[in-house]
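Incident log entry.

Two folding requests arrived from the same account within the same minute. Monitoring flagged them as a possible duplicate submission, but the sequences differ. Recording both here for audit purposes.

Request one:
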Amino acid sequence: MFEIPKNVLSIISTLESAGHEAFIVGGCVRDVIRGVTPKDWDITTSAVPSQVKGLFSRTFDTGIKHGTVSVLLGGDCFEVTTYRVDGEYLDSRRPSEVTFAGEIEKDLSRRDFTVNAIAYSPTRGFVDPFDGQVDIKKGIIRCVGDAEKRFGEDALRMLRAIRFAAVLEFSVNNAALHAITKLRESLANISAERIREELVKLLCGKNLDALKLLEKTGLMYFVLQKRVNHGDLEESISRLKTLAKTNADENMKIALFLYWTGDNCKNILRDLRFDNKTIKTVSIYVENIFAELPQNRYEIKKFLKEISPEFFLNLIELKKVTNPALEIKKIHEEVHDILEKKECFTLRELAVNGDDLAAVGIPRGKETGEALEKLLDAVMREPSLNVKEKLLCL
């Protein structure tokens, strides 16, 4: 029915030959049913970690506390996890303890959504006690068992449900949406880093209308780190859909989303624990989305002096999305011509440096910096001046 990598089959075969059960499970099964090649292949087994480690020559403990051992085979790494049931959840995120289970059905019963609670092996076929295959065909995200219980165990699952709706282009069933709305405040117990990861994946999904579910359920307030979205979400989604048709990177998508929240994007980015590079990049995008376009070659160079050519062209694409009538072809041509002719727009490309200026009597320090900036400005206006002898005579 579908092809499983030979190394995965080898691991399953080795475990079964030793008298254990073994299946591929979770997202990889969901993906192959959808006709998508999985990025990772997760294996679950009745064997306990010590038994798994005894069957393979190269292993290391990935999450031994939770029964996970990584098996190295043929240059690839595969996670093999013992069937388990989870103990009580005390922090809305992780079980206080896990107990190894002897049956695959018990392991599947602890999982979040029916589409992720399917196992498969070449010898036993599918094990699908919660009709996940039916939900995949219908395009529905439905919790395994009681939705409130699932989300009460792990509050991040609420955001994951909506992320799956965006990425898989599925809908979320009413029982799950009702439970999310009821329990939305528990998302405040989840780390900003985990929320950030889910938000970025959501924004990179194809079903961007899923963002409406964040508003509908009240999760948006907690995703934005306890801020109200003051923007027009419908318009934001429309722009994001247009952006999705381009080669936009995730920073461009984050910028367009945050612009429409109507709040200070830097504060949101910091609260969501984005790295400094992303904060700087996204902030520049947001600050310039509706700024006036450069009108001539010199003004383009002033932009290129502050940000990379790739960054600048991305900004122009963002501006085009927010203003479809904008004519950007000429700017693209100018940028490429500047780069092709290697015209100077940074101090690094200037034909003189601080040592050259010191040699003709300009004191080092603030005066040197000011002089170099004036020379750079002159060269950006007139490229032919970027010759050492000419610059030292200015």
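Request two (distinct sequence, not a duplicate):
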Amino acid sequence: MKFDAMINRYPSWRNVVYGGRGMVATSQPLAAQAGLEVLRRGGNAIDAAIATATCLTVTECGSNGIGGDAFALVWTEGKLRGLNASGPAPGRLSAEVLWEKGLRQMPKYGFEAVTVPGAPAAWAELSRTYGRLSLREVMESAVRYAREGHPVSANNAARWQVMYETYARELQGEEFRSWFDTFSVNGAAPRPGDIWRCEEMAKSLELIAATEAESFYRGGDLMERIVAFSDKYGGYFSKEDFEEYHPEWVEPISVNYRGYDIHEIPPNGHGISALMALNILKGFPLRERGRVRRSITGRSKP
């Protein structure tokens, strides 16, 4: 039998799913389970969101990294708040530095393209402000999957393969060697079902959880190692870049689109683009088309 896990030739209709006491939706089932487990243990929606986000850095590490940024819209006690946890460029990096190196646009790879990571600060800030459980409890699943391993999903394996091949072709130099050492199984991109584990990532997540991200920003072991690696390979980071960084609570921006209030994070987030698009759509006479659903007998119903 020829089987392709990426193709479903026999789609079926499902009943609408309802969550009576909470729901977690992600692109990766293990991350969704991590969020649900936190809810079962008495955590709130913020705890579950952090558990899910940190778990995705392990189970979909090619799309969600510890070194990335984070944005959050939080509705609580009748008020909506926004958190912008995107990091700035290092203080020693400027347009003039890039021009002197002969660059006229931002490169895709290398330290010129790297900003101060904001995601760990977002997890800690959200946990301190709204969480019910400790950050250590909330991040237990992420640490466990990194240390004990998890089976790589078919979709993730396909994207991982493309990413691995691209990096193998385009990334040259010793500074990139650690990426291949970390994100591989037996010297290659993992295949569907392969168990991927990373003890170094588990230790990093443990330190972030135990110190509420202070080890990442205020002179801890993680920050020291990041700056040392940057110095070794001609990067631009300094300790001050991390020590002075804090996520920012912001007032969300919004538009009313056909009776619905749509909220986004203000710039430097890209949410304003979605709001501009909705305002443009207001000028068009759109109408909802009648949808077709199938009964269990196979007949179409309007």
